[in-house]
Write a structure and sequence with these properties.
The chain has no helices and 29 strands. It has strands at 6-11, 14-21, 26-34, 38-44, 50-56, 66-73, 80-82, 87-88, 93-98, 104-110, 113-120, 126-129, 146-147, 153-158, 173-180, 183-190, 200-205, 211-216, 221-226, 234-237, 248-255, 261-268, 276-282, 289-296, 302-307, 313-318, 323-329, 335-342, 349-354.
């Protein structure tokens, strides 16, 4: 039987494609490609069977290499074939996205905090960089970039940095831009309490309501904003035991396709902390999330996870030691663990996604 749902997972520079059987909750390895350096993130073209993958060795040396490669995706075999020439990026890109028309790729960089926009040709190949105004404000430590459902706003969660013994806290923010023909224009940023104790990492948009849902990394909180107002509508805990936040941080966030449930990752640096997917039911009228489950990921440091398009299976990428944990999504949105696939070698499992 030919696969209809593909799962992709990145171990270092190797990007592996699996077929995902949503009935049995199983993975079957199909093929793999090796990128020039370690895979960071990936994003699909909205209209063509093309996947854009950003990579970097990020060693802090002048000889570092960073770029994006486009791949044609064979939905029947799972094979990835390079499509056009890769583009070179100025630094490690922590996140990329493609606008809803499929004409532009936007990359976010954490050090230095920045964003770039590249054109995408009608055939899906990557093109030239779009020059931007010199006065754009990128905040401190950009960690993601998303385009709102109208395709008119670009939003960058700029995480800031926690205080240290020798350095005060760097405030966080949501940097907001008008987006028009590949050009970014500053709009007022969102920074409650002037950005202090506000460390945004990732956001996702409600499928039906004009709301965005935001993870606060160090604060271990979920916040909900009307797009885009300066104060949150709701702030919720993410941990099963919020009194124990040491060495804890949130990670990715994704909505179920039906909009009734939102999921986010809780990461710990060891098995003694909480490594879980927090599950929230979402009020269909107000958008208020209510925590209904903290599902153990059966691994450590779930940096990313993904949901299949049918909304039946959620797959967690536990970073190190690398493993893929599969969960069945039940009718109420809660997760039921199915099985875990340990990954070979010592490379960290850095990204996973479905196609």
């Amino acid at each position: 039987m030919l696969p209809t749902i593909l799962l992709l997972a990145a171990l270092g520079p190797e990007l592996t494609t699996y077929s995902l059987d949503t009935n049995q909750g199983t993975l079957n390895k199909l093929s793999a490609v090796t990128l020039p350096q370690n895979v960071q993130e990936a994003w699909p073209h909205p209209k063509r069977p093309i996947l854009y993958v950003t990579w970097s060795n990020n060693s802090g040396k002048a000889t570092d290499r960073h770029g994006v490669t486009a791949f044609q995706v064979n939905k029947q075999t799972g094979a990835l074939q390079q499509h056009g020439h890769p583009i070179t990026l100025p630094a490690r890109s922590v996140f990329i996205t493609v606008d809803h028309t499929g004409q532009y790729l936007i990359a976010a960089y954490n050090q230095p905090s920045k964003a770039t926009v590249h054109r995408i040709a009608p055939d899906g190949t990557l093109g030239a960089e779009v020059p931007q105004a010199p006065n754009l404000n990128y905040g401190i430590y950009a960690h993601q970039v998303r385009i709102d459902p109208t395709n008119k706003l670009v939003i960058i969660p700029a995480r800031g940095n926690a205080p240290t013994a020798t350095k005060p806290e760097d405030p966080g923010s949501l940097q907001v831009y008008k987006f028009d023909n590949g050009k970014l224009t500053n709009l007022p940023a969102v920074a409650p309490n002037k950005g202090f104790n506000f460390q945004p990492r990732h956001l996702d948009f409600h499928p039906k309501l004009p709301l965005l849902y935001l993870t606060l990394e160090r604060q271990n909180k979920l916040q909900v904003y009307r797009i885009i107002e300066p104060q949150p509508l709701f702030t919720k805990e993410t941990l099963k035991d919020p009194a124990h936040m040491e060495n804890q941080a949130t990670s990715a966030i994704h909505f179920h396709p039906n909009g009734r449930t939102v999921y986010l990752g809780n990461r710990a640096t060891s098995a003694g902390g909480e490594n879980s997917i927090a599950v929230y039911s979402v009020d269909p009228k107000t958008g208020e999330p209510t925590l209904i489950q903290n599902a153990d990921t059966h691994g450590i440091h779930p940096r990313t996870f993904t949901i299949d398009p049918s909304g039946r299976i959620l797959v967690v990428a536990n970073m190190s030691p690398a493993s893929l944990s599969l969960f069945r999504i039940q009718s109420d949105g809660k997760l039921e663990f199915i099985r875990k696939y340990d990954q070979p070698g010592k490379q960290a499992l850095f990204w996973t996604g479905v196609y």
